[in-house]
Amino acid sequence: MASTLFRTIQIHPFLLYPTALFSRRNGVLYCTMKSSQTQTATQEKQQPPKVKVPQHALKKTVDKITRDYEAIIGIETHVQLSTLTKAFCSCPYNYGSQPNTNICPICMGLPGALPVLNSKVIEFAVKLGLALNCKLSLNSKFDRKQYFYPDLPKGYQISQFDIPIATGGYVDLDLPLEFGGGHRKFGTTRVHMEEDAGKLLHSGNGDYSQEITSLTSIYSYFSKHTVDLNRAGVPLLEIVSEPDMRTGIEAAEYAAELQRVVRYLGISNGNMQEGSLRCDVNVSIRPVGQSEFGTKVEIKNLNSFSSINRAIDFEISRQALLHSQGQSDQIVQETRLWEEGAQKTVTMRKKEGLSDYRYFPEPDLPEVILTQEYVDSISNSLPELPEAKRRRYEKMGLSMQDVLFLANDMNVAEYFDETLSSGADIKLAANWIMGDIAAYMKNEKLSINDIKLTPQELAELIASIKSGTISGKIGKEILSELLAKGGTVKGLIEEKDLIQIADPVEIGKMIDKVISENPKQLEQYRSGKTKLQGFFAGQVMKLSKGKANPGLLNKILLEKLNGQS
Amino acid sequence: MGSRALLMLTNFNFKATVSSFGSASNPFFLIKNNLRIRNFSTKTRSSLQPPDLPGLAETARISLAPNEVEEFAPKIGQVIDWFGQLQAVDLDNVEPAIRADTEGDNLREDVPQTFENKEALIASVPSYEEPYIKVPKVLNKE
Q1: In this structure, is residue A6 part of a structural domain?
Q2: pTM reported for the whole predicted model
């Protein structure tokens, strides 16, 4: 990222960039002076530097300023579909393939080649449209979006313009408790089908190649540009949100919910690092109470939910500070890049008027026609979606924290549901999955589908503890063995002779043995050092190899220690 | 390079016809009963403005010498006029169509098929440097 900034300076020495470099070096100085209203603030100057303490101080001031403004946030999300082939040709697509191996005359845009739509793309679009509560267009069409960029072999992108396959709709979500909690509903304007462009790379002097995000005209003028067309023509669904979000966390949670939805639907792996889920965010602010919108700034290069959150909050602060200093005219319509390393947004490209994409209907593709029967059959085949799952878990009496954890990953939710259908207690099953099982998966870097413990055996384990057959402590021991090696709870209990000792006579005998072997401690106990009860209990438990029922043990032990026997 | 130039040219032709319609009601994709259209007079005067040719060339990323502009302008004008005739078609009783279309979907199963003659594909790339295709830097005028 640092090299990006550096290259930027090389190309546009006349713009603000040298200031950016200056402010990076002098971040600490700037922050100590920021309260001074007279200081001329360029948009680059209020970026919090990496130094910890001043950043905190800056945040305080910014919080105060941002309270007077309301942010309006909208998100465009591109979801790469997990079809086996591309949108308009039969080329296979696999992330990470050798460059320029999954190509053909169609996706290379060679003259005379004609596109034929992949039926799965329609199916996936309908699934997503239904999942987002959209109105589906039974008749829609493809259009050509013309622009010239080296990653676009045809000179146009096949997309949908005025009649997208789905419109309207909304996303329901619950904010995590650590961010204040609460339910939110954000509108989705439209969902449309389109094709991806190739991957543009530029290599500097070294032999490494770095991906260039779309339209980054600020990148080096001097380095080599190459393209990998494997991704050209891969199907995407673009989801445009209503400008309903107000904070970075709301936007990040919206994106996270979209990821859950596409994963539940099985239409995309939703992986942000691989670029299967890409979010471009639009942010504008306005003084609280004002009805018209402020100037919109677009942010790109957001590779994680937390970067969405932080980039937006940074951008809100930047714009609010400019407003508060009477420099709102410096908020211009532009595209800014989020720099993860520097934790700030920087100008990528200023927009001069709207781009003229000269859309027109794609003459090589027929109209997309959906029948109501088709839509209904897909509607009937939809899985239970994250929102429905959360509401169901909530009704079962689980806490919101449990609900969010369990419904976050479809496979975890399925595991939980199966454990319940094997008769397990709801809260206990949730606790085991969120506690020991989650910890094991994290340590071993496994997903829930990789563990050897079946939901049925988890239910059996919970039942065995609840019925008193084994102690909770033994239960945990069995669990680790089941997680790693599999097997059955009953088998392990028998094999290792782990059945809890709940016979008072047998426990009494063990207590007698321990007491008689420790006359000194008994004397101390009886002369007032009652804390030694713990010592005796530990000795008895040890003697029973952990199998004694702890409640019973303590009850009988107390009687014996205080009694005459 | 040959195919690239050809591509440009096809694009150019398209844009010449299309962009000149601008945001007008795009009559040419409403042609469903095209037989009817043929019946109309061939000499309807177009209400469409001829395009600004140098501007058009610029959007299509091709350079035209002044004498070429002179040469092409009347030809483009003719094409516009020809399309302009469609403006006169009475569509009052015609159901609006999204597309001029053939009946039925033309869809493909999601079954991978590798294109075999990859060598020819790569050989036709003007500038190739294993394993990448070398491309011009930025084509957008920004």
Answers
A1: yes
A2: 0.77
